[in-house]
Design a protein that fits this description.
Organism: Deinococcus arenae
Strand order of the largest sheet: 5-4-3-6-2-1-7-8
Largest sheet: 8 strands, mixed
Pfam families: DNA_mis_repair, HATPase_c, MutL_C
Protein name: DNA mismatch repair protein MutL
Family: Belongs to the DNA mismatch repair MutL/HexB family.
Radius of gyration: 30 Å
InterPro entries: DNA_mismatch_repair_CS (IPR014762), DNA_mismatch_repair_MutL (IPR020667), DNA_mismatch_S5_2-like (IPR013507), HATPase_C_sf (IPR036890), HATPase_dom (IPR003594), MutL/Mlh/PMS (IPR002099), MutL/Mlh/Pms-like (IPR038973), MutL_C (IPR014790)
Number of strands: 25
Distance between the termini: 88 Å
Oligomer: single chain
């Protein structure tokens, strides 16, 4: 084994002296300024604060200060606060660890901060006359009387000044500030009912006044994003999720908390959010979401990660199902037609419509042999005929699949499969046979196709059998849906196949769909433009400037266009 010069490994085992052990343990809870901020903000929230102010200087190495107006620490207990494992959040009984109801609970945050820097605490409960002040550095703790408003202010200075090895490995100040700002943004998103302020080197970087989740999105990501989110409310799940047009290639704006704690979401919960969109999202993109998940204290373990960023859930599949259902319900309660591209740069985003019914559309004409122009509810609608027909065919196939006995092939067909496809065949064969697709391993990399679902057998689709098998044995999580989406695309109307008669039939079929707003692959089927937007674009004022259609306030019935 290679060693650095002078490195010696002793075969003897010995117990480290207490002062050495303390230096090592100081990094278990506090290894960077971000950890100090997280721990102190957790303490403020556990104290019932309605106002939390964070200050950071020098990337947090020079100073971290968190001020709150919470319950405060009584004078009789304040001297215990910087001691290791001293906490008010767990009882001495071992069973209390199995039902944690607070964000902080280990009793190590203030102790670790005192080991790694200079800790200064000033605290006063509202009913107490006078405040108490604690100065702690290492094992030296001093308590004195002070004057301060109700609440607690914790300051940590000169972080790692006595630990030069750890100080040299810290990230640049700008990088740490970016991480602290992102962390405070997450707390704002998951605790929107509080006052928040972040100050960096004397400059205010983030402020938030009490509001709801939508207001928190506005504070963190701006009003344009806030105007494109929908409220989510379900069993043990609340928050907001973006409309389908607001997506990103990464999942960095999918935020989930468990019992108030911002966490690194398990992949199962992220997948549940995306699955809640169904076909409204194209593959490879993710929405913005802020979801607060609530479970019984005994049904989660927050003590599985040093920084408490990961929690273990006793019933993760059940929680995922509730998240999926809540997101799907939020989306189904709103019309999801996307606005037409703006006609001028200064145009404002179209307000979110107020109800979910698909309008009765009257065909006006056909554009470029692919798009339908229609009117309804006082608005102009542009319909992608291919996407709309594809949606209608997909839902028709979904309804009829399994409605009749499977169709036997006159002669079984042998198909070549890859090793991955054969593995999936062994896993999925019963499921496939359940909806009429009988496919048997024939050996030597071959499979024998014996029956097809009756709804699919008569489709005039090139390479029908190969396409069905390819999708049924693909890497998607829902082979049934993948097959139907592929087969709905091929026969859907293409450019050049449209006329007025077919166009009206497409509109009627789309109106009868359960999810008319997007094709099975997530592309929008319709775009809308209100007459008011047209009037603005042409510089009209007066009667034409009155909100109509879905831009009008709800009155119990559809809007009526002006003459």
């Amino acid at each position: 084994m290679n060693r650095y010069p002078g490195q010696v490994t002793s075969p003897d085992i010995h117990v480290l002296p207490a002062h050495v052990a303390r230096l090592i343990a100081a990094g278990e809870v506090v290894s960077r300024p971000l950890d100090v901020v997280r721990e102190l903000v957790d303490n403020a929230l556990d104290a019932g604060a309605t106002r939390v102010e964070v200050e950071v200087d020098g990337g947090g190495l020079r100073l971290v200060r968190v001020r709150d107006n919470g319950a405060g620490i009584p004078a009789g207990s304040v001297g215990l606060a910087p001691l290791r494992h001293a906490t008010s959040k767990l009882s001495p009984q071992a069973s209390s660890v199995d039902g944690v109801t607070t964000l902080g609970f280990r009793g190590e945050a203030l102790w670790a901060a005192a080991q790694a820097g200079e800790l200064h605490v000033v605290s006063r409960p509202a009913a107490q006359v006078g405040a108490c002040e604690v100065l702690a550095q290492g094992e030296d703790v001093q308590v004195a009387r002070a004057s301060a408003p109700a609440g607690t202010t914790v300051t940590v200075r000169n972080l790692f000044a006595r630990l030069p090895g750890r100080l040299r490995t810290q990230a640049p100040a700008a990088s740490e500030v970016r991480e602290v700002t992102a962390l405070l943004g997450r707390y704002v998103l998951h605790h929107p009912g509080l006052h928040w302020r972040l100050t960096v080197d004397g400059e205010v970087r983030l402020t938030h006044a009490p509001s709801d989740h939508r207001g928190a999105v506005a504070s963190v990501y701006g009003p344009l994003s806030a105007n494109r989110v929908l409220t989510v409310s379900g069993e043990g799940v609340c928050g907001v999720v973006s409309r389908p047009e607001l997506t990103r290639a990464r999942r960095d704006r999918m935020h989930i908390s468990v019992n108030g704690r911002p966490v690194l979401a398990p992949p199962e919960l992220e997948h549940a959010v995306i699955e809640g969109f169904g076909e409204l999202l194209p593959a490879g993109v993710a929405p913005l979401c802020v979801l607060d998940v609530t479970v019984a204290p005994g049904d989660h373990n927050p003590n599985v990660h040093p920084a408490k960023q990961v929690v273990a859930l006793a019933d993760l599949p059940g929680v995922a199902a509730r998240v999926r259902a809540a997101v799907a319900a939020a989306l189904s309660a709103h019309p999801l037609a996307r606005a037409l591209p703006e006609l001028r740069p200064a145009a404002q985003p179209t307000p979110a419509p107020g109800h979910a019914a698909f309008p009765a559309l009257t065909l006006l004409g056909v554009y470029q042999e692919l798009y339908l122009l229609a009117q309804g509810e006082g608005d102009l609608w542009v319909v992608d005929a291919h996407a709309a027909h594809e949606r209608a065919l997909f839902e028709h196939l979904t309804r009829t699949l399994g409605g009749a006995p499977p169709a036997e092939l006159p002669e079984p067909e042998l198909l070549h499969l890859t090793p991955e496809q054969l593995a999936r065949l062994h896993e999925r064969a019963p499921e496939l046979q359940g909806w009429g697709l009988t496919l048997e391993d024939f050996g030597a990399g071959l499979a024998r196709l014996r029956t097809l679902p009756a709804a699919l057998a008569p489709l005039n689709v090139p390479r029908l059998h190969e396409q069905i098998v390819e999708c049924a044995l693909g890497d998607g999580p829902d082979p049934r849906r993948d097959v139907l989406a592929r087969l709905a695309c091929a026969p859907a109307l293409k450019a050049g196949m449209l006329d007025l008669g077919r166009g009206q039939a497409v509109l009627d079929a789309l109106a009868g769909c359960e999810h008319p707003w997007a094709c099975p692959h997530g592309r929008p089927t319709v775009l809308r433009l209100s007459e008011r937007d047209l009037a603005h674009a042409f510089g009209r004022r007066g009667a034409r400037d009155v909100p109509r259609g879905r831009d009008a306030a709800p009155t119990g019935g559809p809007g009526v266009s002006g003459s």
